Amino acid sequence: MSWSVFEYGNVKSITDMFGKTFINNKPVTDLHHVYGAILVVGITVTLGFFASKAIKKSGNSMIPTDKLDARNIMELFIESFYNLTKDIIGPDAKKYFPWIASFSIFIFFSNLLSLIPGFVPPTDMLNTTLALGTFSFLLYNYYGIKKQGAWNHFKHLAGPIPALAPLMLPIEIISNFARPMSLALRLMGNMAGDHMVLGIFLSFGVFAFIAPIPIMMLGTVVVIVQTTVFTILSIVYISMAVEDHH
């Protein structure tokens, strides 16, 4: 990880509060993903507050303003991902969209931090992305059980042909439990790689303000694509869990 302003928060008295890491059982020394996540939550809550205030001020008018403000930013974002959710899930998209919107907004602004020198995105850390992947896993299983019932939800893992059930069941179980890690590694790997490349170009001394421009343009595409990929896969998983099985 390159230098970031979050390093100033990695004081021992604070890191000691988090104990040891789960994977290698070592003391926590880097909390950049925690501070980054707090910053992103602050940004999104602020945008949501001003967007809500602008809507109330306009008398809930459907006509957008002619300037780029918090309302236009949030409406553009929400409308794009709602249409995406509706195209995949169908008329019931409203039931699941609040969670989908939360995923997409948090991941988008987290990824966006990778384009700002001195900031490290919380999504370049497996701790963050695995938490998001695990929550996605719990979410689509919850909605699947709620819609189908526990027996029917897990019954479809065996497939529609009873004779193939001994083959399909272990494959489907492994596939389902691999989804959180797949989501986590894909998002973390792309964001960590993109931020690392940008950090290398920013260290080019006199060319630091010129060399990274193409990388930052490419990074913008990565930010959007990775947000969309994670969101689409989560929508697809929910759609598969709640569809009627025959």
Description:
The protein is mainly α. The protein has one domain. The longest helix is centred in the last third of the chain and has 38 residues. The protein starts with 11 loop residues before the first helix and ends with a helix. The model has no long low-confidence stretch (mean pLDDT 82).
What can be said about this structure in brief?
The chain is about 70% helix and about 0% strand.
Features:
single chain; 246 residues; mainly alpha; 68% helix
Secondary-structure-derived class: mainly alpha
Based on CA inertia axes, which overall geometry fits?
A: globular
| Helix-strand pattern | HHHHHHHH
Helix content: 55-70%
Strand content: under 5%
Q: Indicate the mean pLDDT.
A: 82
Q: Report the total helices.
A: 8
Biggest sheet character: none
Number of domains: 1
Radius of gyration: 21 Å
Low-confidence spans: pLDDT under 50, at least 5 residues? none
Quaternary structure: single chain
Distance between the termini: 49 Å
Let me know the number of strands.
0
Helix and strand layout, with pairings?
Elements: H1 12-15, H2 32-57, H3 70-89, H4 93-112, H5 126-148, H6 150-155, H7 165-202, H8 212-242
Helix pairs in contact: 2-3, 2-4, 3-4, 3-8, 4-8, 5-7, 5-8, 7-8
